[in-house]
Structure formats: structure tokens, C-alpha cells
Amino acid sequence: MDDGPGGWLTMASPVVEVQGLVKHFTLGGGVVASMLGRSPRVVKAVDGVDLTIGRSEVFGLVGESGSGKSTLGMTLVKLYQPTEGSISFRGRDVTRIAGSALKTYRKDAQIIFQDPYGSLNPRLSVAQVVEEPLRIHGVSDDAERGTKVVEALDRVRVPAAEYLDRYPHELSGGLRQRIAIARAIVLEPEFIVADEPVSMLDVSIQAGILELLERLSRELGLAVLYVSHDIATVRYICDRVAVMYLGRFVEYGDTETVIARPGHPYTKRLMAAVPSVDPASQRTRVDAHPDPSGSDTAGAATETCTHEEPHWEEVEPEHYVACPLH
Amino acid sequence: MAEMVEFPGPGRGGPTRDVLEVWAGTRRRSGLAPFVDGLRLLVRDPFALVGLVIIAVFFLVAALSGFLAPYDPYEALPTPEGELARLETPSGDHWLGTTAFGNDVLSQLLVGTRVAFIVGISAAIVVGIISTLLGLLSGYYGRYVDDVIMRATDVALSIPTLPIAIVAVAILGASLRNIILVVVLLFWRNGARIVRSVVLTEKEKVYVQAARAAGASHLYIMRVHILPNVIPVAFLWMTMSVAFAILAEASLSFIGLGDPNAMSWGQMLNLAFTEGSIRTAWWWVLPPSLCLVFLISSIYVVGRAWEEKTNPRLRRR
Amino acid sequence: MPAQPTATASAAPISDRPPVSLRVSGLRVGYRVEQGHLRAVDGVDLEVNPGESLGLVGESGCGKSTVGKAILRLLPEDARVEGRVLLDGDDVLRMSARQLRQIRWTKLALVTQSAMNALDPVYRIGDQIAESIVAHEDLDRRQAWRRAEELFTLVGIPQERLRDYPHQFSGGMRQRAVIAMALSLNAGLLLADEPTTALDSIMQDQVLAQIQRLQRELSRSMILVTHDIAVVAETCEKVAVMYAGRITESGPTAAVLATPYHPYTMGLRNAFPTIDGDRRELISIPGNLPNLLDPPTGCRFASRCPFSTDHCREVDPPLIEVGPGHLSACHYPDQAAAFRDRAAQRSTWTTDPGGG
Amino acid sequence: MRAYIVRRLMQAVLVVFVVITLMFFLFRLMPADPTTMLVESGLPEQARQDLLERWGLTGSLADQYWSYLTNLATGDFGTSFFYQEPAWNVLAPLILNTLWIAVPGMLLGALIGCGLGVVVGWARRGGPVERAGIFLATFVRGVPSFVLGIFILMVFSTWLGWFPGFGIGELGDGFTRYFTWSFLAHLILPVMTLAIFFLPENLLLMRTGVVENRGEDYLELVRAKGVKESRVAWHAARNSLLPVITWLFPALAETVAGIVIIEVVFSWPGIGRELVLAVNRQDYPIAQTAFFLLAVMIVLANLAADLVYAKLDPRVSYE
Fold this sequence. Notes:
The structure holds four protein chains of four kinds.
Chain A: H1 6-9, E1 16-27, H2 31-35, E2 41-53, E3 58-62, H3 69-76, E4 84-89, E5 92-93, H4 99-108, E6 109-112, H5 126-136, H6 142-155, H7 160-163, H8 173-185, E7 191-195, H9 203-220, E8 223-228, H10 231-237, E9 240-245, E10 248-254, H11 255-260, H12 265-272, H13 300-303, E11 312-316, E12 319-322
Parallel strand pairs in A: 3-8, 3-9, 6-7, 7-8
Antiparallel strand pairs in A: 1-2, 1-4, 4-5, 9-10, 10-12, 11-12
Helix pairs in contact in A: 5-6, 5-8, 6-8, 8-9
Chain C: E1 22-33, E2 36-48, E3 53-58, H1 64-72, E4 79-87, E5 90-91, H2 97-103, E6 108-111, H3 125-136, H4 141-155, H5 171-182, E7 189-193, H6 201-217, E8 221-226, H7 229-235, E9 238-243, E10 246-252, H8 253-258, H9 263-271, H10 310-314, E11 320-323, E12 326-328, H11 336-343, H12 346-349
Chain D: H1 2-28, H2 36-40, H3 45-54, H4 61-73, H5 87-122, H6 128-141, H7 145-159, H8 181-214, H9 217-224, H10 229-265, H11 271-281, H12 284-312
């Protein structure tokens, strides 16, 4: 994007650089379906996204369900194959790699999932969960794996001696998520996608996990893409944030700036919907009256850009809005 | 700076546990653990326990039938007076009486047990292997492979089972081998579907995604994450297939398509039926009937209990 | 097509039932499980005056949903329930099956989380609403459908969509349909159990605004069960905070959240991320819920509380009145101001995991 | 909706086609050609060749297949060796006989089975009704159809002498063909056997469905509405019907096995018994045709089940 968020996107030596990324899903395909002449349906989950994340940076990605934010995250770690566009990792194009090159990339790019109850195989002990990536990558020496597993558990502040032989069902959600993070860092990656890592956890332990991610990013020089539906959590660990809507970014910027002065109508809407814990704050609820059409798409949909190519505007330094409607 | 972390919880062995020792402890695990757990659950269900015992007794009898049978099952036996011992009621000589052909019912029954197990177990093993393989392929690779295999099972499922078995055995010849072959052809399809549905659920699990993201190969994922969940189900299907196979053999034999060289329970009933002894010679009719009912029902009861314990949606909170 | 009723007129055909008062006292719920006796709820008192809204808030495993279900007597058969649940003075827990059927939906209606399964997938939504009406009032199906049409107008869904099945509705619409259903007999007390948990923030905001508006306009009593204190802060007049099967603090929402007296409430507030005002530090509460199979003596929060003393670990703190209608189950109400200051600093909550 | 039915019909036609083809190749697998039997009974060679030609057994496999298909399409199913009559003429009158057992037997089994399944599913978990219900159903399910038939025959016909257990009885003429007391009396035991044979699986499936649905959120809401408990159970039952119907598809194919055996046990002149007789007489045109008819019955029943399912589950899309 030539008139895109210019300098803000270019970075001395980014870890991950994404250009024009598109991921479409085709539904309803199949031999019989095609024989019967049914045409498959295309879902444009990610529809043209540019992004850079640097070393030791936690980049926030905010959007509602269906915005394509998780798809974007999973495409970046190549759980999905991009339809178009490019992903480069430390200057190396990884968009279409396969085989051993892909396996190498898997070592460098990891993912943490939302559901701490589903992301650990109940049949495996903590030791087995955390050592799995090492086994996959051919670390055959048992003692070496042991050392690395203990080290990873140390990093996530889980006392190894106490937990190595426990099974997931014995652990609380927060601990499980720590184990999942340990599994993600045991291969010493440089890039981690954290897909809603705290949204299924109780509020009282969310902060601990967020803090852990931030510290790991700092200590290990990790580039982290923090994906969340909750703009409030983003502000605690991310310097920069992008707001995603229907497969595209609608706003980029410094987190505090975006929160203080959201530019895009959708961002405004999103922020206005966040309830406040402070009883003194007199937030006015947007549109208490329901949408007469009965549809769910928030009113923002009608206000979004209809242009094919989003047009970026720098509303203030380090703050970009797509197609702002003032 | 120390960071806040959830407590380790109620201590287990305390802080003195040695990390390396614990690590070494996690190295030892048995691949049979799911089976042991499953068996333990089964034994707790009284019905299943009785079923298991019945199956075990039948199995023992089958194994020892050569020793136990008092007479040659095919031999036309004479009475002490030298006549054919035709349709004799149970006595000290013939505990279960004799058939219209002068055969000893007990001996035939014992040999029939062996036939039942031979057919049941060999068919079940082949069915188990085929269903597991096809189910795994279909469920794991999805897309076209799945489409083709599932359409094939759709068609296969619409074909009437016994009629095709009748026709096939009639054409190929009535032998145990052909009966087993036909049973396999009939029952792979349901098994493949069941295995496939387990694979479909399993492969969508987040931890499988995590393993993929860590670079795991398909083989690794199948071996570590999917097979351990498939095996109990496939095993259940195999167990049920034993019953299906025995049932199919008995049905075919009952209508006269049994292996003439292997006296099975179904054949005993066929002979009794064609000889018109069904209404009179209860000692000839009841034993094979009851054996069939008890063996097959026991297998079903055990299978049912297993399903009841392993299906999370049926479990009580 | 019946004439479009206006928002105010629509309440008229719905039977005019007064708001209901609820008084829960000494509620205990236990389950016999393999490992012993699980005390999910262990002595809960609640009070909702007619027309009042109460937020019942707490984290997973605290027993808030169990309390809600106990009030409606929807717990599974093997649950052991003790105490009293007085609905306008009548004890729900001691009602016959027939009496229970009569008060359900006429005095006490439920708004569940409608992620996917709150509505029967094989019936039209209109039929499901009509079912509740026909069960209690002497109306035929056609009349019940007419009422359902009015209810849909009330929650802002086009009437013709009553003929749809649940899978044809989006999450937000299903939630509204569930709300419409809860209003079908104008029950005096609405029990909303995590009504917006599965929804996106914008939709959650709209639905909550709607619940709040209807509750006030129709002057219904309400209990809102949720894990989200911000939702309570904006929706309810009163709040009760639960922890490990007990109420730790309750009172007027503004007072409880602005000047909490219980360290757990303080911790919850500190851990809650917000977007308004300056960025504060987020502080999590270390430790885990106590084991409810064998709860510790004394205060249940003591093991995680930075201010706990030996006294806390030995003696159960009673709920003490610390302000008008404001109760807190902490032994040290007089030190609350100091606790609040210290609780805002992260070092207060930091523990060393090894020595924990 | 119409497109949906058309698509289902196309699938049904496809299945029939596969069955026909399968049959063709199966019968070509025979070690000897079907005339061998007749040759042994002194058929001259010229007549044999004529017969082979008439049965489409000369020429290449492709030619044979083609003539086989065209014959079928024109309704020519070949001539029975045994009856020396067109197979179709032999079997056509038997179709109704089979349906007389199949339809009432399966309907009864399904209705009673599903009803009892709801009772067992709604009973207290781990209580006596549940345990006894599951055990009995599982046990009965393990009883082979012919054993069941023999027992029923022994008890109700031989021992009690209430009903006849052999044949179809005396039929009336024309319209009253099937409305004679004799026929109805003969009908009772086979229908009863089929119903009992078909019942347990219905019961178990329905019960599983009800138990699974008991935990669903929507039932909680239905109960909270203050409707009668029976109405709550009805919601669970209505939803559990769907998996039962799904299961019917494969089960129908198995149930035909039961029908064949029951016809044999009660000497009921239906398609299934004729199939068995034909196989034992090596009368392949009859066997082939009987098999074909049974397969078509299953395909049609599947089609019906499919349409009923679509009617009962609003989530099925007709696209």
C-alpha cells in the first residue's frame, strides 16, 4: 500500500513483515457437490492486511468475532496457507514454504491458543506436553529435553519439580495457560501469536498472564502478536494496536492514542461498548434501541468504507485511520 | 522481582522433590493405560462383569472343545441295542440327548463354540483393521479422500446385508473362509464411519493444532494424539464385530448355507428345523439357541457398558 | 397483521404482575461426588426488594450460577439444598411440584446465556414463547402468538421472525428472543444468568442496555449473575460479590466498587482492565480457589489475601455492616482504607512462588 | 425443497444402479454357468446354447452387461429355472406379502421402542428403571432373529396354541385378499417377532438421545417456564428422534436380514423366503430378482427416512 501508514510500517529490522495478506476460505466444495453443480462459497476472512512486528514488541490486534483476527494469527504461523500477499520472517519470504523450510519456520514461529482447557492433551503429563515440540524437532537426548523443559517452566514461573508429573485436569486455567506458553517458548522461537490468551481466564489471573507475555517478549526479544476482542487488555501490554473489521484493518496506531482519540467510526463504537468498572464514570450507552432491521451487524457496518482499496489517512503522528468519515 | 503466580496448590511431596527425579518419573508410562482404565471401569459394572465372565467361559470351552467333547460330533451313534440313537432325550450317556441323525448334541454344541469364536475373532480382526485404516484416512485427510470413502459407505449401507451374504456365499461356496469374507465386506462400513467421526472430533482439538504449529508430521499427530482416542473405539467396534460375525454365520447356517465341514450352532438349528424337530426335540433346539443368545448378548452388554463409561455425554456428572 | 403496538402500550396486554421481593437466607448447596462432599454454596444470604436489581458477581467456581439455579430449583436431582428462598414470603425450596410450576415464569423468569442451546432447535421461536404463555394463562395458541408478536416488538425483532427457528437467528437476536420469552408473563423477578457472556462487546452493550431499560420501564426485580464486575457496575443498583461459595461483600454497587471493604473486591478491581482514564497497573490475585471438598477453616480468601492474619485463618468472618446496606465479611473493616491504598500497589500482592 | 427431493431421488437411483452392477458381477463369479444344472438333467447342447443366449450369457463381458441392463430396463428379469416362468411373475405377488410383515413389524417396533426409550432415558440416572431397561434391551438385542422366531413359535403356536405359526393362511379373492381372519391370525406371530427384533435398538438409541438432551441448556429453560414435566420430557424426546432416524438408514439394511429369516421360520411366502429357496435350488434368476427387489425396498425406505428427517429437523438445508 503506497500511501499506507508509511514510516510507521517500515522498521529497521522487523521480525515479521506482512504485505497485502489475504486468506479466503472455500466452503461447500467436494466431489459430489461439484458434480451436482453447487458452487462453493468464498469467505473472505482476511482481506488485505499489512503489518510489521519488531523484536521485543507486543503488537495488539483487536476485533470482534468474525473480523478475521484469529485467522490472521493462524495464517502468520502458517496453520493456514495464505491465499495472496506475502509474509516475511527476518527478511526471508515464508509465504509459500513447505517441507523442511516450513519445519524450520515452525521452530521460529509459535502460537498460544485461547482455550487452556482444549490446548493440552489430557492424556499427556506436563512434562510430555512441554517436551513435545522438542521431540518433533528431533532433540533425541532425554536429558537435554529435560533441561530445556525445566528452563521453559522456570520462565513461565511454574515450579517444575511440583508440576512435571501432573496432568492437565489437575491444573487451574491460569496454570494450564502457563504450560501452553512454556510449550510455545521451549523451541526458543522469535515470533509468537497469542490468540486471545486470557479471554477464557478469570479476571483475577488475567493480569499475571499478560504480564508474563510482556516479560517474555522483553527477555527473549520475542515479537508477539497479541490478538484480543478486548481493547482494554491490549492497552496493558501493547505499544501499538490495529483494529480489524471484516478482514481488514480500519485503524492503526499507538495504543494510548487510539484509545484516547479513536478515529474510525467502528473503533469508536467498539470503545463505547466497553463497560466501565468505575461506578462514577457516566458512560452513555450507544444505541440502547435495537436495530430495527433485527440484524446483528453493529451500525458500523453501514458506515464502513465502500472503496475497494482502503485509503489511509494519518490523522495525527503515528495514528492512521482507513477511510475516516468525519 | 518475583512475579505473581498461582500457588502450586496443596503440596505434593513438598518443595524437596528433585526436578530430575520427577522428570525421570514422567518417562515411564504404559501405552496400555487406556485399556487398563477401561477394564477397571467395566469391572465395576455388575452386568458387564457377568458378561465378561460368560464370554471368558465360552472362550475356554472353545479352546478346550476337542478335549471336552464326549463323542465325534459327526458320528451317527448307536444305542446299546445297536440301533441308531435317534432323538434320544438327555441321559447319562448323552447329557443333552441326540439329534435326528444320532449325533451327540453336547459334542456338536462344544464344537460349535469353537466355530463361533473362529468366525467371530478372525472376522473382527480384519474388520477392525480395515475400518480403522479407512476411518483414519477419511477423517484425517478429509476432502476428496473423505468424499469418496464416505459416498462408498453410503452406498454400501443401502445394500441389504443378509440377502447379499446369502447370494455371495451361495455363489462363492459355503465355507468358513467365505463366510468370514462376507462378514468383513458387510461390517467394515459402519466401523469406518465410527472411527472417522472420532478422528474428525480429535483432529479439531486445539492441542492437535498446537502440535501442527510445532511442526509435527501427520504420522506424529496420528500416533500421539489421534490413535490413543481411536483405539478404544475401534476396539469396541471389533468386540461388537465378533458378535455380528457370529450372528451372521449363525443366520447363514440356519438357512442352509453353513460350512458343511464345521458344525456350528446355526447349523444345528438348521438341521433341527429342516428335520421338523423344532416343536418336539427341545434338547436339540434349546442348547444352541441359548448359547447364541448368551454369547452374543454378553458381548453386547459389555460393549454397551464400555460405551456408557466412555461416552462423555452419557456420563453422570 | 395486528396493529403495531407502541412501546408503552405493549406492556398493557401482558398481565399486570407486581414486582417480586426475594429473600434468600442460609442457602447451602452440596453435591456428593466421588471424592466426598462438594460444598458449592455454603451459606448465602441475599435480598432483592421489589423493583430492585442485584448483581451477583464472582469468578468461575464461586457458586454464583448454583445460587441462581437453586432459586429456580433447577439444580440436578442429586444436589442437596438447604436454607430458604422466600419469594414474596413463600419458600420456593418447600413448594410442591405443582406450586413450583405455578410460580415459575409468573413470578420468576430466567434469561440464560444463549450461546447456542438456550432454545430448542426444532421448534419455531414463536412456539417456544407461546408455550410459556399457554402453560400459565387461559389463552389459545393464536392469542399467545399475538402476545409473542408484541414481545418481539418490545425487544426490537421484526414480528415475522417469530416463525424462524433458533438456528436462523444470530447470537444477539437469540439473546433478545430469550429476553422476550422471559418477559412473556411479566414475571416479577428476572434472573439473568450470564446473559451476554457469549456476545461480542458491541452486542453485549446493546443487550445489556435493553435488559436494563426493560427492567426499569416494567419495574421488574432482577438478579444479574455475571463474572464481569463492569457489567454489574453499569446495570445493577446493588451488588453481591461471591467467593468460594460465600458472599464476601455486598451493598449498593457504587459504594462497594468505589470503597470496597473486602480485600477480594479490592483485588478484583485492580485486576480489571479498563479503557477510561489513565493506564493503571493491572494486578492479578495470586493463588487458587480453596478446595471446596475440604474448605479451610476461617476466611476462605485468607490463603490469597495479602492482609490475612492467623485470626483470619481460624475464625470465619461474619458479614458486618460497614456502611448503609453495605456488608463485608472481613475481620478488619476499620483498616479498609489502609488496605485500599496498599492493595493498589502491586508489591502488596506479589508472592514468591517457591515460598508460597 | 423440490430440488432436495430430486437430489435424494438421484442418489437412490445411483444406489440401485450400483446394486444392479454388483449383482451382475457377483453372478458372473459363479464357478460354472447356470445351465450346468440343467445339462445334468439331460438338456441337449443346442438347447443350452439357446438358453445361454436368452439369458444374455454369451458374448464379451461388456456385451453381457449391456444386455443385462437393457433386459432389466424392459422389466425382463429372466426366467426361473425352477418354475419355468418369468422371475418377475413369480416374485411380484410376493412383494405385498413381505410388506405385510415388514411395515407393521417395523412400525410397531419403532413406536414401542422409542416410547420405552423415553421412559428409560427420563428415569433417574443409575436407578432401577434405567439399569433394568438398558440391560433387558441389550440382552434382547443379542437374540438372533431365528432364535427369537423359534421361541415365539414354540411358545405361542406349539405350547399355547393361540396362533398358527406356519404359512400365510387362506387368502380371500380380489379386494378382500388380505382381509381374512385366517390371514390376520397367521400374520400376528411374524409381525410380533419382527417388532421385538427391531425394538431394542430403537429403545437404546432413543434413551441415549434423551439422556444426552437432558443435559442441554434449552431443557433447563423449558423447565423454568413452568410447563408440566411431561412436556419437558417431550422436548427431549422430540430432539432425540433425530439421531434415531439417522440410525435408521444403516439399520434398515440389517432389518431386512431379520425379515428374511422370519419369513423362513414362519414359512411366510415372501421375497426373503423365496430368495433362500432359490439359492438352495440354484435358481439364479429368482435369487437375482429377489435380491434386487429387497435392495429397492431398502433404498425407498431410506429415501422415506431421509425425507422424514428433513421434515423433522429445521436445520437441514434444502440447498
